[in-house]
Design goal:
- The structure holds three protein chains of three kinds.
- By secondary structure, chain A is mainly α.
- Helix content of chain A is about 75%, strand content about 0%.
- Chain A has one domain: Helix Hairpins, CATH 1.10.287.3510.
- The N and C termini of chain A lie far apart (about 50 Å).
- Classes of the chains: A mainly alpha, B mainly alpha, C mainly alpha.
- At the A-C interface, helix 1, helix 2 and helix 3 of A face helix 1, helix 2, helix 3, helix 4 and helix 5 of C.
Chain lengths: ~100, ~675, ~210
């Protein structure tokens, strides 16, 4: 298969993830959509790595996976902390970033 | 030592005195601050004498010597040195200033002895003498202006010496403000001269002025008029005269020194010094003559009605300075300066005597409450009367010779100056009248309680209060001291008044027409280039003038005697009959009210307008508020984005990404 | 070749289906499961791209560990159905899919219209050991040593952060007891006009407990 197929697939998944981030209310699902986007990025990286015959892309994807794992840990930790405090688990209610 | 070194010494001694007293007043015991101040001025006087002696050793045509300390400005075509000019005019002024100041310092040692601010007084007084000497010794306009400003500052400090007294502080401010107007005039005038001639020192300006300015050209007339503004403010001539009577709020020695003998004569000195310019601009000189005459008449009339003893003397000062200004404006330089010298003597003497009387009255100054001090204060009576005789120009006193010489010169000039001379003679009559009004009211007539007590040997002890408003005061710092000192009991005061009394009688001998012309002769090197140098009145004309003047003096004194002593009720009846005129005179021709209406109130209204409209509406509202509003409005868009909603942020990020991709798409295609 | 293409389309469809499932399914639990499917499909795609080690890591780490963590949290927090609300969240939610579509279109144009020839080919010739653990390991320890170490440091920070977030704080139990009386938090009606308990995110400290003596 040509590399372009993989890249277009990756773009598609990325955009589905983006749409999910903007649409869903539960922060859990938003995080899941974020995972989608990250994976799409990984796919693109691997595809280009294959295209160039260079394994740097694969190592990059590995590190991205590490980062994604860390981010999930913290994100879920926050959600658990919020749940413990009986705060609403709702993206629209969390507006402390207001400037 | 050469002449200019003595000149620097003359300046250095008072300066050293000021610094020593000002910095060391805490360690100086008792009255030593006063003695130190007196000593420094005494040394300055000795140095002036030495300067005179050295100057006379020079041949007559090289008696204008400039001594430069250093050049402190030499840039962009402006050259100003720290230099002094020693010539007959400045030496005369130095002698008069330092001599009279020495005697007044001596007087103050006793007079101010119980004042809490004793050391401060002498520091200020020394500073004043230094400034005045700087003014007269300056060799260029820059140093003149420096001395001019210092003198104004010293005057302010000394007028409001009793700084807790509200009226004194207000008077000080009034004097300072009017003096500043004069300062501005002087600076503008100096600038106009510099603009035309390119020089700032006297020698340079006077040499180049005739080449650069045509006779009576607008520039030179304007420059001279501006200089006149400065002279009038400092010498209290119309219309910048309102500060002088109020300045009597200061202690009596201050009135004697500054407002009689020295500072107010600075204007006369200025005109005499700049005489080449005034001869180049006769229009300005005429203005000077007219204002001088108007002032001398105005002041004489007001002195007829004033009730405060010191204010009567103040108005007499104003009047006599008017004579001097008239004199130097009609090119009678020698006569004008002669009158300056004699006036310094007898006016200081009069103030000293007044101080003694006021002390006997325990601070009160109103003529209405005084009377019959002749027996209680004989020394004061004699000296005061001598001063009054000199003021009235009684025959053979010093004032007689000097004043009538001015009037003789004025008559001699002819044309409209004759009118001025006639006014001068009329005013001389009035002068004689009011000077003896003072003598008769204070020393003769019914004896008041204070005088009677003093005859028994008891000095009056009244309430400590403001003589003008009657407000209660204490005797701490900022108010007069607890004790009062009269001449009969304090030898320094007697030692100061006696020489002045002698001089008031004998000083005329340097200017007897036809016999001794020492002063004229002495001043000749300075004024010999004057156009009017040769046109002097003939001896006979002068003698006639003297006779007329003497007659007027005697008539005036006799009128005063008749009016005040013969029939006590006559005074009150006349006042009733001429109530309107009396009111006009006692309100000083309503000048203060005029200024208040014409100047003070509009300016205050402008200030209020500025504060309410310009400041609050425009600056606060439009400028400040507008800027704030503009920034707020401009950034409201940015603030609207920060909603705090995560979705919105995510959407923004995505839109950013989309935008970037689009950009790269477009760029690469 | 054919096998490859079939595998590609199968895995591709699986990935897309999983993605759509994540976004569209209402129950968060089902979303998690959909994501697991997606991840596995992606692993297959990685295999197709000669990235064996990455595919294994994807399955073991991502689908294995991270998703299990997700499952735990969803079970703890409670994944009740999110009720369907039209245009909830305002204009953003309405136009979100459109923005995403726009971005997809742009990227597609970029890729397909690109003058990069290699995109239209299978790729460079690779050796047999391409993407093997040995190769990746060698790279990690030589060329990418610093990112490797940084990544481990990042993992350490994440672990510490997780512990910090999860620990109990003083007075929390009392406020938790207070909150128990309040209406249910998640999945309920939005509390728009209720005063936010901790508007500034500071830990709520209730009445300080008396210190035990000794």
């Amino acid at each position: 298969m040509d590399t372009s197929w993989f890249v277009v697939l990756s773009a598609f998944i990325f955009c589905i993830g983006a749409a999910g981030v903007m649409t869903r209310r539960s922060p859990l699902v938003v995080l899941l959509c974020l995972e989608l986007m990250l994976n799409a990025g990984n796919l693109a990286l691997i595809a280009f790595s294959r295209m160039l015959g260079n394994q740097d892309g694969q190592v990059f994807a590995l590190i991205v996976m590490v980062v994604a794992a860390c981010e999930v840990v913290i994100g879920l930790g926050i959600i658990v902390a919020m749940f413990r405090r009986r705060l609403p688990i709702d993206v629209d209610e969390m507006s402390e970033l207001r400037g | 030592m050469n002449v200019t070194s003595y000149g620097w010494l003359v300046l250095a001694f008072p300066l050293a005195g000021t610094l020593l007293i000002a910095l060391g007043w805490r360690v100086l015991p008792g009255r030593s601050a006063g003695w130190l101040g007196t000593l420094s001025i005494g040394l300055s006087f000795v140095a002036s004498l030495a300067m005179l002696k050295e100057l006379l050793a020079h041949p007559e045509d090289s008696r204008a010597l400039v001594g430069t300390a250093f050049t402190y400005l030499d840039t962009a075509g402006v050259v100003a040195d720290l230099s002094i000019l020693v010539d007959p005019l400045s030496v005369l002024m130095c002698l008069v200033v330092s001599g009279v100041s020495f005697l007044i310092h001596l007087y103050s040692v006793a007079y101010m002895a119980s004042d809490e601010g004793y050391a401060r007084f002498f520091a200020y007084l020394n500073f004043f003498v230094f400034s005045m000497l700087l003014l007269v010794l300056a060799a260029n306009f820059v140093l003149l202006i420096v001395g001019w400003a210092f003198v104004g500052a010293a005057s302010y400090l000394l007028i409001s010496f009793w700084y807790r007294r509200r009226t004194a502080v207000e008077a000080g401010i009034k004097a300072f403000v009017i003096n500043v107007i004069g300062d501005v005039g002087l600076v503008v005038g100096a600038f106009l001269l510099f603009d035309g001639t390119g020089a700032l020192d006297y020698v340079g300006v006077f040499e180049r002025a005739p080449e650069v300015f045509g006779e009576n050209s607008p520039q030179i007339v304007t420059a001279c008029l501006m200089i006149l503004v400065g002279a009038f403010a400092k010498s209290a001539q119309l219309p910048l005269h309102t500060w002088l009577p109020d300045a009597m709020e200061g202690p009596t020695p201050v009135s004697a020194l500054i407002h009689a003998a020295t500072m107010v004569t600075a204007g006369v000195y200025l005109i005499a010094r700049c005489h080449p310019l005034f001869e180049l601009a006769p229009a300005a000189a005429d203005v000077g003559a007219i204002i001088g005459t108007a002032t001398l008449l105005f002041a004489a009339t007001v002195a007829l009605a004033a009730t405060d003893l010191k204010r009567v003397i103040a108005y007499s000062t104003m009047s006599q300075i008017g004579y001097m200004i008239l004199g130097v404006s009609v090119a009678a330089y020698g006569a004008g300066l002669f009158h300056l010298m004699t006036h310094a003597f007898f006016k200081a003497l009069l103030f000293m005597g007044a101080g003694s009387v006021i002390a006997a009255m325990s601070g009160q100054q109103s003529l209405n409450r005084m009377g019959g001090f002749r027996k209680a204060m004989p020394f004061t009576f004699v000296t005061f009367t001598i001063g009054a005789l000199a003021l009235a120009a009684f025959p053979l006193t010093s004032g007689f010779f000097s004043k009538d010489e001015i009037l003789a010169f004025t008559l001699h000039r002819g044309s409209f100056y004759v009118v001025l001379a006639v006014v001068g003679y009329i005013a001389a009559l009035i002068t004689a009248f009011y000077s003896f009004r003072m003598v008769f009211r204070v020393f003769l007539g019914p004896t008041v309680t204070q005088a009677r007590e003093l005859e028994q040997g008891q000095l009056a002890h009244g309430e400590h209060a403001n003589p003008a408003t009657g407000e209660e005061e204490d005797t701490g710092v900022g108010f007069p001291g607890a004790e009062h000192h009269i001449a009969e009991r304090e030898w320094p005061m007697k030692a100061a008044m006696a020489p002045l009394a002698l001089l008031a009688v004998l000083a005329g001998t340097v200017g007897i027409p036809g016999l001794t012309e020492t002063l004229e002769h002495f001043l000749e090197p300075t004024f010999k280039e004057s156009k009017f140098h040769e046109s002097v009145p003939s001896e006979s004309a002068e003698l006639i003038g003297l006779v007329v003047g003497g007659l007027f003096a005697i008539i005036g004194i006799a009128a005063a005697y008749y009016y005040l002593l013969r029939d006590p009720m006559l005074r009150l009846r006349t006042r009733e009959r001429f109530k309107r005129i009396h009111g006009f005179l006692i309100n000083k021709w309503y000048f203060d009210e005029l200024f208040d209406l014409a100047i003070v109130r509009p300016v205050a209204a402008c200030g209020r307008f500025g504060r309410s409209v310009v400041e609050s509406a425009f600056v606060q509202g439009v400028l400040v508020g507008g800027t704030v509003g503009l920034v707020r409005a401009g950034t409201s868009f940015a603030r609207a984005i920060q909603t705090g909603e995560l979705r919105a942020y995510a959407a923004l990020v995505l839109m950013g990404v989309g935008g970037l991709v689009l950009y790269f798409l477009i760029v690469s295609s | 070749m054919i096998f490859e293409q079939i595998l590609f389309f199968g895995a591709g469809l699986g990935a897309i289906a999983g993605a759509l499932g994540v976004v569209l399914l209402r129950n968060p639990f089902y979303s998690v499961l959909a994501l697991v499917t997606h991840l596995v499909a992606l692993a297959v795609l990685f295999l197709l791209l000669q990235a064996a080690f990455i595919a294994a890591a994807q399955v073991v780490v991502y689908a294995g560990a991270v998703m299990v963590l997700y499952v735990f949290v969803v079970a703890y927090v409670g994944g009740s159905d999110e009720p369907l609300r039209p245009i909830e969240g305002g204009a953003v939610a309405a136009f979100g899919p459109l923005f995403a579509l726009a971005v997809f279109v742009e990227i597609s144009i970029a890729v397909l219209g690109s003058s990069l020839d290699a995109l239209g080919s299978r790729g460079a010739e690779v050796s047999a050991g391409f993407g093997s653990p040995a190769e990746i390991g060698r790279l990690l320890l030589t060329k990418f040593l610093l990112p490797f170490e940084a990544a481990s440091f990042l993992l350490l920070i994440a672990a510490v952060g997780a512990v910090v977030l999860a620990r109990k704080r003083k007075g929390l139990e009392e406020s938790s007891a207070q909150d128990a009386r309040e209406p249910g938090v998640h999945g309920g009606a939005p509390r728009v006009d209720e005063p936010r308990p901790d508007a500034h995110g500071t830990p709520r400290v209730g009445k300080p407990r008396p210190e035990p003596s000794g």
